[in-house]
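Quick start: load a record and inspect it. Here is Probable succinyl-diaminopimelate desuccinylase:
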Amino acid sequence: MNVKDELIVAVEENKQELIDLVCSLIQINTENPPGDTTEISRFIADYLGKDGIDVTWHQSNEQMYNLIASIGEEGGKELIYCGHTDVVPAGDRDKWSFDPFSGIVEDGWILGRGASDMKAGLGGLLFATALLKRMGVKLPGKLTLAIVPDEETGGEYGVPWLLERGLIKGDGCLIAEPSSRLHPTIGQKGSCWFKLDVYGEAGHGSLSPLAGRNAITDAIKAIAAIRTVFDIDVDIPEEVKPLLAVSRKYMEEVEVEREKYKEILEKISVNIGTIHGGTKSNVIPDTCTVEVDCRLPFGITQKEVYAYIEARLDELGIDYAITPFGFRSNANHTPATDPVCTAIINNISYVTKEEAYGVMQWASSDARHFRDHHIPVLQYGPAYLPSIHNFDEKVKVEDVVLCAKVYVAAVIDFLQQ
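Running the structure step on this input writes:
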């Protein structure tokens, strides 16, 4: 039996440890905001320490800790396995049918906030690294864990913080973000979040619309103009058309409930997320603030989107200001032929005996930061996709085990390439 098969068997034989680990991670509340990762960081360091894996702590913000740990040898290739410890807030507890931080197993599912995004994937990375160390596998290179505390609010204190300081480097990276079991995401759309402030002139509500200038009604006009970005016909570059074609195939044949959304891959999405304006019903509002989330396909940049929006708003003759915030990037991808992609995709097929291929993600992620630093990256992690950021989040136990098998096998292939 070769070393890959020995590792895959070992995952199966020790899967209860993996399941218990994931449950324990979910039971530690790491909602962001507020983003306190102190307790979970201690837990992770203790878990890895049991197998003699040293962890270095890097505090990037108050109560936010980045953890780095490595196994293997210097001088060869280096593979980064990356995961985030923070989760989105659970929200209204009354809308959950179970305690969001219970971390229990029920009917083949692990339940709780972060089960799919992404404590199951994080647990898989930790378990895989510990298992490789425990079994004394001689790696012809280095495997580095990069565990970050801040992804769900934009990631300022996580992956980019580490990369900008040169604390992590590598020849390839896998992020255990949620994905389909057979289809890692090798490309992401760009992101353009901005705040629109519209200014009016206050006055007595009984005199409106003859008096003052209503910032809310001007904001309504602005919103209508902004939403026309969806109608822009984007010229998709030839080099990414094969990726988009296989991604449409995926939405048509695999995640069939998403088939109706397939045009979003080539469109600028636009979501009016929040609106705040006015002080009282009988006062003409002098300010209104709107937060907008646009995701950008290949073929158009943030700069071009802002130019289009500002031109439309200028035509309205309103008084406004635009301030970017949060996620900001252009569309980006890693070629399917890159060694890190082939190592993961080939081993998904190796473990499952089914066809696997990489697809485009219609959202954005930390992957862009690695690509900005010339580190090829893809995302592959266990998930029940409809439950992500939703109430009653969960993940299948069998998918957690599958991904862990891929993680241990892919390390061998990538470092030997």
